[in-house]
Amino acid sequence: MKIADFTILKACRVSARGFTVSLAAITLAACAGQPERVDLLLRGGLVYDGTGSPPRPADVGITNGQIQFVKKAPRVIAARTIDASGLAVAPGFIDAHSHVPEAVERIEGPFIDAQDLSQGVTTILASPDGGLSPRIMQQLKAALAAKGMGVNYSCYVGHNGIREEAMPGQRRAATPEEIERMAAMVREGMEMGCVGLSTGLMYDPGMFATEAEVQALAAAVKPYGGTYDSHTRDPGFHMVESEREAIELGKAVGIPAKLAHLKATGLINKGHIGKVIAMVEAARAQGFDIVADQYPFDGATVRAVYDLFVLPDGRGDRQVTEAEVRAALVDPARRGAVREATENGVDKGFSWIKAVGYGNVRIVDAPENPDLVDENIELLAKKRGIAPFDLLADLAALKSVRVTLGTIDEADIRELIVKPWVMVASDGAYIDAQSLARGYAHPRASGSFTRVLGHYSRDLKLFPLEEAIRKMTGFPAAHLGLADRGRLMPGLAADVVMFDPATVAARATYADPGAFSTGIVTVIVNGKVAFENGKPTGVTAGQFVPRTR
């Protein structure tokens, strides 16, 4: 080594989040014949770095929870070596839209989140769809920290959460004073490290917000480099107009905007996803950062059929019991009031049928009557010559009937999923005995990422594996401002997934939504092995990951 080279190396240091590696020390050690030392070595895999670049054979060295090197490294001393021969080695997957953390309070002991680890997810974005205020978010963070986390979490500031605190019980447009009160909460959340603002404009109370209110709150995230994520206002009956509202907000405020769980649902929207694609691509051509996330299943929200009914007191969707619904439906004096509340909401409030319509409801599981599976409620009611409400009432008399509120045509899924500005996300909830009993567990919670890897990339060959991985790693990390996640590069956090490209696949179905995927071999969270041999190790290496953009 020349003296000039030594001088350059001595001056060169790489730093990332407090981790400093002296390139001079590493190079001199190598030149002196001394092997590098690491905590964990992934030997002999095919590395997909998360950028969309073609894979390359390389070893991955991990020390102190961070990636030390990605290269061919024949001489390394490792506390543990994992043979990655024949496996893909990729950054841990990032789920940019998940409801899993909402279950933390009902889980005893560490919150491991096996369903996400089993499909390679290492970082989850909490509080989508307008979820949590900063106050509630702090409570969630405290609960997760106390229990221990199996994966990493980051958060949006939730519009519905702050609206409920700023103007409790109000179903009207906000005043300027109330908007400023909410904007202060948005800024509080961004100071906590949130990635941006999320809205759930289809739900109560977000459905009462004006476009001006939402735009003012989205503007509050701009100084922080935040993003806007929207469950749009009326995707059932006015899909194109609702997605346009979110696109125009991003353009007007000048911030990145993401169309949450983008899809074309129901009979009236079948074949229309191309209209939204055209709007997004026109905005992107103008230089605006408009993106979307998508889950790769042909049904949207899953519910037990009795959850679709709203009682005249306003209770519905997880608030009513099966027995209460049945009692109300068989009572002639109450049945009419139940129909009115179910179809129109109470006091202009939310109801599933009001939001999506009968033509958006499809039966996905009916153990007592399997011939009903895949029947659309509106079409089946016409076939039977009865009103759709009466058909739902008949189904409520059966046991364990589950429906999806939003049938998605497979051709529409494929047309959207190939777009480079579409990332993968689950929109999943935590699956346990309670969610299974209530009938609202969805296979996307356990199989979204592996279904894309196996079915859409490998089997259908819609895009190469490196592009599928980019959609789950480097792309969402860049959009969300999580600078130390989503790529396999020295100095970044050591979130890694190792899987078999030939066998990786989702096994979750509507009948068995919690089934673990196949082909995921090892998952590493912040340098610790969190999943191997088909199950979690019990390690709680997860952290809260703040926006770093």
The number of helical elements comes to 19
Oligomer: single chain
Structural class comes to alpha/beta
Q: Could you tell me how far the N terminus lies from the C terminus, measured between alpha carbons in angstroms?
A: 38 Å
CATH top level of the largest domain is Alpha Beta
Level of helix content?
A: 25-40%
Query: What would the principal axes of the Cα set say about the shape?
Result: globular
**Could you say what the CATH architecture of the largest domain is?**
Alpha-Beta Barrel
Uncertain residue segments: 1-31
CATH superfamily of the largest domain: Metal-dependent hydrolases
Q: How many strands, what sense, and barrel or not for the largest sheet?
A: 9 strands, mixed
How is the CATH topology of the largest domain named? TIM Barrel
Strand content: 15-25%
Number of domains: 2
Mean pLDDT: 92
Q: How many β strands by DSSP?
A: 23
Radius of gyration: 24 Å
Pfam families: Amidohydro_3
GO molecular function: hydrolase activity, acting on carbon-nitrogen (but not peptide) bonds, in cyclic amides; hydrolase activity, acting on carbon-nitrogen (but not peptide) bonds, in linear amides
Domain Amidohydrolase: 80-530
GO cellular component, one term: cytosol
Describe the structure.
The chain has 549 residues and is an alpha/beta fold. It folds into two domains: 335 residues, Alpha-Beta Barrel (TIM Barrel); 107 residues, Dna Ligase, domain 1, CATH 3.30.1490. The chain is built from 19 helices and 23 strands. The strands form five sheets. Strands 3, 4, 5, 6, 7, 20, 21, 22 and 23 form a nine-stranded mixed sheet that branches. A six-stranded parallel sheet has the order 11-12-13-14-15-19, with helices on both faces. It has a three-stranded parallel sheet with strand order 8-9-10, with no helix packed on it. α8 links the parallel β13 and β14. The longest helix is centred in the middle third of the chain and has 16 residues.
